[in-house]
Amino acid sequence: MWVISQGWGAAIEWVSLHVVGPCLAVFGLGNAFGNPAEVAEAVIITLLQLVMISLVFRPLESLFPAERWENRRLTTIDRNYTLLMLLGLFPLFSYLVLTPVAHLLGGESATLAAVNDGPTWGLTHWVPWFEHHPYVAFAVYYVVYDLAYYWMHRAQHAIPWWWALHSMHHSQRQMSCWSNDRTAYLDGVLQSFVLASVALVMGVEPAQFAWLVLLSELVQNFSHANVRLRIGQRLGKVLVGPAFHRLHHMVRDPDRPTFHNCNFGQVLSIWDRVFGTARYGEPVHPTGVSDPIVDADNGKGLISLQWYVLKRFWAAFRSPAGWRPGDVHFGGPGFAPIADDADTVPAGLPASPPVNSSARPPLTPSSTRPANSAVAGADSDAATR
Ligand SMILES: [Zn+2]
Ligand SMILES: [Zn+2]
């Protein structure tokens, strides 16, 4: 860990001195974007994520696909969302919101050499022992952060107005290594608010928060990838892998209408095991949603999709049914939510996953293989609980 920390510090310093500083000087921006070291760290994190997605996860999708697609037409919008998020929106959000808030609250600069007088609240304030064991403290932050994410994610599915937003992430029928950043922007703001609040209460410093986000994002990029790779039974009981998260994205099964409410974990799968929502040992299911209103997301462009999602969010937010926990579909007037019957697929929804519809890109038989298929049965991260 010491070597990683030293290497990370050296990389930030090098990029800051040889790339960020000269670039800012050329454009006459000086310190307009804050400390060059903070900018350098953001640049490195962005590049690392893009390199991992495009040079590791994407080739793995071609080599070991979970679903075989004739083309990747529907993945294009997710790739564009990822590029827009990493190269535009996230740096802008960090610059305009995160950094000023962190500095306002007395957080440490991302410069590793910065002097810290010690926090006045948070984990290291409550238990000073952690001050001398920063890696253990980081592990504790990570576990709490991940637990907070688990319950937030449960809420995104249970509260209909939040599902109106989060369902956009689920509507993708070709889930790939680019799908993690397929998010309604209002949902992204809500998520950032919840997770940053948890981090601030714990006293996580900005540089540590960047690491929390980077590690979480990389695991999530991999867990969304269309790969038939197992991470092993033992590891699968602790960590979220591609098969585990793919089940979370499964199209609703008409024979098991509540079966899709599973595997909410972000990085650690232990929360699903502890709270009884873990599922393993299933074959590859097609991904997407069975609600035609949400499924229509797939035909929309970058901007119109955000607008369409906001319309169904607003319809849910102003309706009493939008506040009653439970599965809904948005077939009411003006996209108003209607509660689903707990035991049956609601009238008007497709009786089975629309894998052969003209709108859905064709899938090979491997992706629709029955549950008892030998190959499909081998697709879980941990075959048993
Ligand atoms: Zn979800
Ligand atoms: Zn997902």
Automatic annotation (TrEMBL):
Region (Disordered): 341-385
Upper classification of the organism: Bacteria, Pseudomonadati, Pseudomonadota, Betaproteobacteria, Burkholderiales
Location relative to the cell: Endomembrane system
Keyword annotations of the record: Lipid metabolism, Membrane, Oxidoreductase, Transmembrane, Transmembrane helix
Membrane topology: Multi-pass membrane protein
Source organism, top-level taxon: Bacteria
Any Gene Ontology CC annotation: membrane
UniProt keyword Protease present: no
Protein name: Sterol desaturase family protein
